[in-house]
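Appendix C reproduces, verbatim, an entry submitted by the partner laboratory led by Prof. M.T., so that reviewers can inspect both the input and the predicted structure.
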Amino acid sequence: MKTTVVCGVLGAGKTTFLRNVLANGAEKAVVLVNDFGELGVDGEILSAGGVDTIQLRSGCVCCTLRTDLVAALRRVLDEFRPQHLLIEPSGVATPSGVLEALATFKLSPVSVVGIVDATDFVKLYEAQIYGQFFEDQITNSDIVLVNKTDLVPAETVERTVGLVSRLNERALVVPTVMARLDADLPAGGRVEVRHLSDHSLPLEAISLRLPNPIELAGCEALFHRLAAGDLGAVRRAKALVQTPSGPHRLDLSSGRVDVERFSADVRESRLVIIGEGLSEPAIREAAGLDRRQQEPIPTLTLPLKGRERWGNR
């Protein structure tokens, strides 16, 4: 069984990449998804295509969920026996932590695909907003996709590719649109895992159940308010909703809102927002939720610190 870990910060294009791989692959595959937030979205997006998907929610597989990750891997090996295991950690996970957990099973070959967002990678890296978190992802990757190149000028793509290449000289760096890779995935065979400690990502995740059905126009208006920063510093938002016109998926990343028809009915409409300084009361009001009818799911705050990566939450 070959194993591929797909890493990248929030909204870089991990789920899109996996959908591409699964649509074009002929081998039996299982996907292990770690959503950041109490109500998972990515797992349902992937499983809608008929792929066996195991979800690990609420936390991060490189720190608070290591025990759950190990249990899920045992289940994959015992029950599914796939030819290809794909692991999508949350956007706040470091591949070094995941690779250390995988080493328990002596899995081989293991490769890491890193994905960066060309629209803001250079700016965020130079501002040290993510600190060594970026470096952990890039330096442990065998191939790095510089994604969303259609949204930026050619010189921005060139600067991003150059920066990534300097951070990891051995990795293949590929500019992509919609995370499409017209090449075989790397076979793995790494020499060592680089663990960069002392990085911290104190982010909040607000998860809300929405009415079924819910009006699509209202959901779109909410996402545009989130993109405008009216309700806090939103790094990522995603929703699956059942509307009178059918199921839809909404996504906010890099300040851009995308809405598309979903391929299967949504039994539970839900919304996950990730960021800093989020105003849950204002978000609930904007979503049209009545506090008397629905108690909120507790907000999850996850500080990611290298030296505490195996602690209990």
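Residues 291-313 have pLDDT under 50 and may be disordered. Additional entries are available on request from the coordinating office.
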